[in-house]
Design goal:
137 residues; alpha+beta; two-stranded antiparallel sheet; 5 helices; 2 strands; 52% helix
């Protein structure tokens, strides 16, 4: 509890109620062991959450990171876009987010089809993309 107070007061995290430390050891046969420590800050009241719930929240954070951000970074190389025109990077990120949402939620494809296959099909048929967003009737 003292650490959370220090984080809140000294570092300016106004809502910090709990600081969580998660230590992880990754063991893959034939490779060196990897040890990682990650810290999470939350405004959840300590009286309203259990340690197991906090661990689920931390794991859930990485689920988002691995499913959404990995897709944006790996497939669309979002981190390497060097746009110098003011506001253009934000607009591109918004468009990429909208495209990803459409691909995830559309019923125009077989539900078993991977997201990447849907994106490739739209790239090969731009009119399909326009139909999905309602630009063509």
């Amino acid at each position: 509890m003292d650490t959370a107070l220090w984080i809140r007061d000294s570092l300016g995290f106004a809502g910090c109620r709990i600081l969580i430390r998660v230590d992880r050891i990754l063991r893959i046969p034939g490779r060196p062991e990897v040890r990682e420590t990650r810290y999470f800050v939350t405004s959840i009241s300590p009286e309203k959450v259990t340690p197991n719930q906090l661990l689920r929240f931390a794991r859930g954070h990485w689920q988002v990171e691995n499913s959404l951000h990995f897709t944006r970074d790996r497939w669309w190389d979002e981190d390497r876009h060097w746009l110098t025109r003011p506001g253009l990077a934000e607009r591109l990120a918004t468009l990429l987010g909208a495209a990803l949402s459409i691909l995830q939620r559309t019923s125009a494809f077989d539900p078993k089809l991977p997201l990447r296959a849907k994106a490739e099909e739209i790239a090969a048929n731009p009119c399909l993309a326009l139909n999905l967003i309602g630009a063509l009737n």
